[in-house]
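Progress report, Aim 2. The chain analyzed during this reporting quarter is listed below.
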Amino acid sequence: MPRARVLASIPQFVFFSLLASLGAVALAAKSWHWVVDFSRASVSDDGSHLVIRDAHPDYVNAALAMGAERLAPGSSERTP
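Predicted structure tokens for the chain:
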């Protein structure tokens, strides 16, 4: 009989696992904004360039040496 009990409880386990997964997906979708805040890289408003915030100084120096443009702080527009 123990085998019959285990087999009978499998559909309930699957149902509750599915329910928990859907709950986790709903919570993740609700709090998606933290991913954007956590990320240091984003695309500019017009989509023409990549913006990296709080980059390591060595990375900034190397990128500028290779022709990258520095943006004004807090802006997604190029400096003149």
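The two ends are 79 Å apart (CA to CA). The CA atoms of residues 6 and 13 lie 10 Å apart. These observations will guide the mutagenesis work planned for the next reporting period.
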